[in-house]
Amino acid sequence: MKKISAVIFDMDGVLFDTERMCLDAWKMLAEREGIKNIEEICTRCIGTNSQETEHIIRDAYGERLDYDALRHELNYIVNKLLKDNGMPIKSGAYEILEALSQRNIRLAVASSTKHSIVCDELKSAKMYGYFEQIIGGDMVRQSKPAPDIYLKTCEALNISPQKAAAIEDSYNGIRSAHSAALTTIMVPDIVKPNEEILSLTDFCCESLNEAKNVILSIV
Hints:
Elements: E1 6-9, H1 18-33, H2 38-45, H3 50-61, H4 67-85, H5 93-102, E2 106-110, H6 115-124, E3 133-135, H7 148-157, E4 164-168, H8 171-179, E5 183-186, H9 195-200, E6 203-204, H10 208-218
Parallel strand pairs: 1-2, 1-4, 2-3, 4-5, 5-6
Helix pairs in contact: 1-2, 1-4, 2-3, 5-10
């Protein structure tokens, strides 16, 4: 196994338990509006940026869905939950960041979320200072599963992709990191890996704590 010197984290679903929060909000709105199969459709959106999410949902439901109105309401619900309850941190998130930092492993974020939002959320969770580079989905031309965001993050770190590992929870994230030739580590959140994803994944871990131990064994 190749040695790595940097770890690039996805954010939603890896560091923060926000994917589940958004899915629950979509399910609530869908039940009220009589929208069918929303969980299946939203699962396809995990790991993509807001533009691709809109495309997937509009393609699935067409003109009968007022996407703009529902998205506005969804954002209100999620923002209120965050304001009332704070950022939901995934178990082991602080521990893995601290352990890797102490070993002088370079850290970065590659998130499909808009860069300014990523920075704000990392700051609110007191994680911002751990990361040398933060790349948002609005900083690349193509969203995950294209390799663009991982290639750009490696370029920003000035390292070869072969020297970096990616920690992802989604199919699209794993596809993106694999296409960019990074070591891929999946910590599943909402979706469990299928045969295709397992074939693209170097390590599949049950938790961030397990991922931490894997990384420390390959640096």
